[in-house]
Automatic annotation (TrEMBL):
Organism domain of life: Eukaryota
Record keywords: Signal
First and last residue of the signal peptide: 1-25
Species of provenance: Kwoniella europaea PYCC6329
Name recorded for this polypeptide: Calpain catalytic domain-containing protein
Amino acid sequence: MFMTYYYNVISVLGLFATVFGLTGASPDALPDTPAKSHIEKRGDHPLWDVSPKWQDIKKDKFDNEWFLVAAATLVNWDSQKIKDRFSAMQTSKKRADNVDAVTVELWNQEEAKWEKRDVKYSSITADYSGSNQYWWIAALEDAAMRIGGLGGKGIDKDGFTDGDSHFAYQMLTGEEADLYETDRDAKTYKNEIWKVLEEATKSSVCIKTGPNPDKSDGLRKSTWYGILRAEGLAFDDEGNEIGEGQVYLYDAKEGKEFYLGFEDIQDDIAWYSKPKYLMPEPYVDPSTSAP
């Protein structure tokens, strides 16, 4: 039996990787944030290439996989929702796509309002997430740590702590998300959990493993993963399976996509989060669409 414990909660963003900053800390930098003694200089520092992508994210020093997977699944579905968080970009005089500073707006759950923080590239150390030179995910991390607003759940005075991805979703979108716990010993919930995983193509779905996932599946214990898509499985009117399901996941620690068979992963899912309401289809400018 699939036991669903429903929590009406609000989310926060999510993301990770290695972003390198310029020397010299900014007065806007988060106080008491751990930083490597040496900060590498990097010449080019665009915020993103055309649009933010989940491939730009890779966890580094912060304990924030819950935040990163939420950001990755959100941008995988609708990158505009991430782009909407940024404004007032200050670009370099030498290169127009190099962003020296930007304003980031995130939802404060405790105060129930949007808050803005100015983030300077010079304050981004090597502890921040980012798999390459695009630093939008690091800017989100910096703003999230300074805004907080989660009642100590996932972010405290020292920065990121262990949290859940529905908090991140709320922080990134201002929209509600729900957290569910599953009874992994049940045999009758397969249809239901598959439908949840399929929603990843039109929503932001994340899963968390329990304390003892199957080692052969390569999943880490008590870890949040993003669902990028699930395909290949259907059920007939009597609940019989048709086909073999494949689930494509995002691993924030590795900054990579990988896949598992649905039969392998279903018993490893201890928790999952998703928006309270399905997102509308992303807007596509007809002037840029193919005929």
